[in-house]
Amino acid sequence: MRFNDKLVLNKYIFSLFGVESFDEFLKYESSIKEDTNLEKVDEEGISLFYHLLTSRFFSNLKIDKIKLLEYDNNILRHTKELKREVKWKYFQYLTLLFTEIYLDMYFSSKESLLKNLNIFLKDFNSKVPKNEQLEPFKYEELNKLAFWNATGSGKTLLMHINILQFKHYNQNSQHKINKTILITPNTGLSQQHLKEFQESGLEAEIFNKDGKNLFCGNSIEIIEIHKLKDEEKETTVAVDSFGDDNLVFIDEAHRGTGGDEWKTNRDKLSAEGFAFEYSATFSQAINSAKTAKNKATGKSQKDELVNEYAKSILFDYSYKYFYEDGFGKDYTILNLKEEPSDDIKYNYLVGAILSFYQQKKIFEQNSSKMREYNIHNPLMVFVGGKVSQSVGKEEGSDITNVLNFFQKFINEKEKTIQAIKNILEYKSGINTTSGVDIFTSRFDYLSFLNQESDAIYSDILNSIFYGSNGKLHLDELKGQDGEIGLRVGDGDYFGVINIGITSDFKKLCEEQELDLTTKEFSYSLFHAINKDDSKINFLIGSRKFSEGWSSWRVSSMGLLNMGKSEGAQVIQLFGRGVRLKGKAMSLKRSTYYGKTLETKYTKVEQLNIFGLKANYMDEFRKYLENEGVPSGEMLDFMLPTIKDTKYQGKRLKVLRVRDDKDFKREEKRDLILDTRDAITKKVVINYYAKAQVIGIVASNDYVTKPDTYTFTAKDLAFVDFDRVFLELIRYKNERNYFNLNIDKSNLKIFANSTDWYVLEVPKEYFKITKFEDYKKIEDVFISLLKKYCDEFYKFNKNDWEKDFLVYKEIEDNDSNFVDKYKISLEDNSENSDIIQKIKNLKEDLDKGIWPKNIGLNYFKSFVSNTHLYNPLLFKDGRFSKIKIAPIELNDGEIKFVEDLEEYLNKNPIENSEIFLLRNKSKAGIGFFEDGGFYPDFILWILKDGKQYVNFCDPKGIRNLNPKNDPKINFHKSLKDKEAKLADSSIVLNSFIISNTPFNKIQDLHSDITKIEMDKKNVLFQDEIEYINEMFIKILYEY
């Protein structure tokens, strides 16, 4: 049984939402991963995550909605306390929400918490084999929470909020905390944490055992784990001197699990306090623990760690989830199945250099595209599994092997050119499990450049090594903490070795006839790597990498000295290597962001991994398997599409703003009070839920007949207009309203007027009992202005654009056409069936033959008779083994296409032609509704001299307000656009195809009727006749 499946505390919290696990939660609510709008806060100051959770899990929720809203308020309040802008990703929000739930239960009644946990554990144990069962929770175990966070998933900021969360719940507790302590594995991470605390505005300092603290005991004290000892010495401190009633935070807990003394010492600090642990590598740390049974207890160290962490890990967002959500670079593994001959190994390493060179060329030749996607200058690193202050003999030997390869590459011209030629022709001599050359399909961009092998070789020497020939020189840079600069002849430094230089390493260099000399140097090559003007292309040595140093540049990783016991270290290094900023700082690969890089560019969003020896790669594969992510060779299939040319000559129309017109670029707007109904009637905010949080009981009819309130001059007398102004500036920047000017002096005009908003709230909400209550009034006033800001901007943008809307014909190069798909999956026996089907599909498409449908449960290739190109691809969202770019159809979309196809086959529409086209999100036809609306499909019907252009959007609508959501009301604004264009031969319609059944909508909005939804062109996908209803509306009602 995998350790991940034993996380009983995590499972207990998920059970409160009516699901058994994170995977089941994501199955029910897959949109939470992709909808970045959920990261926003509504005008009432409530996160959209809250709305999703309370609506989606409405029937199964075991936590009161008002309680959830209280937790949401706490999270947002704590977030505002940080002196930095933060938007929580869905998994970060869930982590913070789970912490709120647990701490509330813990401080409310530890006895009840213990009882409920053990009831749940008893049920859990009844379903697993006896040897996998966990021991009951104990009272003394409840004061510890652990968080399994993939490297790069933002655990530092989560820690900052956890500090505030604990202090909030503990403030009314009888138990007082002595100190707040952060334990780190090394000084590098201590300094990094100190800087992060300062940026968040939290008081922190490095522990000073002489007692000279800057903040007089109120700060977070940061100390390295190795300084905690039983007795105080010159460089250590006695752990007992801290007491045992501390609030303790532990970064990278696995450093302490391998050594009994370290773990015992850090656990002492919080025995009567509370502890939070954070690690990317719990499973590796547990797997490397001792398995020998203790005679007294009958348990091994591994048994004890499993029992402890299975009951304390509150949230699991390990690398498996991080990768499947599209965060970080993709990765590709250059596998070696067995130790090869010298010539084959040389080809292998040349292939690694060639892959790196390709990344460099993409970066250098496409600078604007790289800036758009936040790609940094590629860097190749060589890292090892062992970390020490000085390099050992085996690692030193690996490093000299790398250096000898560099020398050989530079000096043996003919051999290297031939190796490059063999690799590009897929004749490297190294094959995958299925017999394919490992470099197949890896050099799309080099193929696009169409260079000869000798030209590539020459360019690599000049652009990567900065020298066309000459001797490799190693310069020990005096005063630069173990740095060796690498250069060819008199060229610039192309690489740096960052290790502890020892006499053994110098002797190795001498034996290998490597030219190592000492040289005075004024600055650190290593510390300059992240600067834009750094010319360093290679970094060798892992010490700094493991101590918290990170870089967005890493694009290729060579594994050195990889043993069987370094799993935690290796996964951490790997996690740092796959870090990616992504387009719009999404941290995601472009295939998951929605705007995909062209296939030939995608190699810069990929980490290439190779090893100096075959057994290193074997160990690395095992580490990845343990993480639950692909660990073997990946097969990439490029599937061309076939256009259905019947649409050509039909003059299919779409609605666009003229190409030469851009509202943001050409127009400026000042935020003024505009009382036209089109704006003010939409500025409606309901604060009844927030009133309930603070104990105000609403009348029974508040849903249909809410009380309204208008602010008086007395209410607004103490409003801080500087804060109001800054909040609005921040808000308009978040919404990208860059051409909207806000004058602070105009804001008082809004304060003196009451006819621009409707505020639904119990009057008691604004009862003043203390001066701080005026802050509540100010918060609501800001919320109303934000809502007004949205409606004002949308009105002005649409009003301006209406004069420049035109009908344009779909052309062959339209951005909505997909020329080819990229399908990636692991090359193993488990996938053999789907691999063969995709191979057959590719063969047909390459020949221009209409392919047969593939109809597996988890993957479909579907040919539509109406779609302008084929095939259309579908993948079950839970099946992560196949990656498809551009993104595949989701459940609602594939059902709509199949239902449409089935309907037209059974009910052909006479004297008509019908065409369908998938509309790309963020790149296709969009409308400025709710900040940007891209309906999933465009459906054309040509009949009786008219062209009916229909925008169809299959989606779940449980999170939308059916009365006033802009997407649901889009049918009306689209008709306004049709009237403005006044072309009687074209009819515009829009439809929401709801995969949320109507009864679920009524559960949440009891005042909405089916007739009202029908009038808004909302059709329900669970109803048999919904396609027929759509055609009736299109052809006969308009």
UniProtKB/TrEMBL annotation:
Annotated keywords: ATP-binding, Helicase, Hydrolase, Nucleotide-binding
Superkingdom per UniProt: Bacteria
One Pfam family, short name: ResIII
Helicase ATP-binding domain segment(s): 136-300
Gene3D superfamilies the record matches: P-loop containing nucleotide triphosphate hydrolases
Alphabetical list of InterPro entries matching this protein: Helicase/UvrB_N, Helicase_ATP-bd, P-loop_NTPase
One term of GO molecular function: DNA binding
UniProt-recorded name of the protein: DEAD/DEAH box helicase family protein
Organism: Arcobacter sp. AZ-2023
Origin organism lineage: Bacteria, Pseudomonadati, Campylobacterota, Epsilonproteobacteria, Campylobacterales
